[in-house]
Amino acid sequence: MPLLVMKFGGTSVATLDRIARASKRVAREVANGYDVIVVVSAMAGKTNELVGWVEETSPLYDAREYDAVVASGEVVTAGLMALRLQEMEIPARSWQGWQVPVKTTSAHSAARIEEIGTEAINAKFGEGFKVAVVAGFQGISPEGRVTTLGRGGSDTTAVAFAAAFGAERCDIYTDVDGVYTTDPRIEDKARKLDRIAFEEMLELASLGAKVLQTRSVELAMRYKVKLRVLSSFEEYDPNAGTLVCDEEEIVEQNVVSGVAYSRDEAKMTLISVADRPGIASAIFTPLADAGVNVDMIVQNISEDGRTDMTFSCPVGQVARAEKALAQAKDAGSINFRELVADQDVAKISVVGIGMRSHAGIASKMFSVLANEGINIKVITTSEIKISVLVDRKYMELAVQALHDAFDLDKV
Amino acid sequence: MPLLVMKFGGTSVATLDRIARASKRVAREVANGYDVIVVVSAMAGKTNELVGWVEETSPLYDAREYDAVVASGEVVTAGLMALRLQEMEIPARSWQGWQVPVKTTSAHSAARIEEIGTEAINAKFGEGFKVAVVAGFQGISPEGRVTTLGRGGSDTTAVAFAAAFGAERCDIYTDVDGVYTTDPRIEDKARKLDRIAFEEMLELASLGAKVLQTRSVELAMRYKVKLRVLSSFEEYDPNAGTLVCDEEEIVEQNVVSGVAYSRDEAKMTLISVADRPGIASAIFTPLADAGVNVDMIVQNISEDGRTDMTFSCPVGQVARAEKALAQAKDAGSINFRELVADQDVAKISVVGIGMRSHAGIASKMFSVLANEGINIKVITTSEIKISVLVDRKYMELAVQALHDAFDLDKV
Question: Which of A28, B153, B318, B406 is the residue whose CA sits 20 to 30 A from B305?
Answer without folding.
Answer: B318
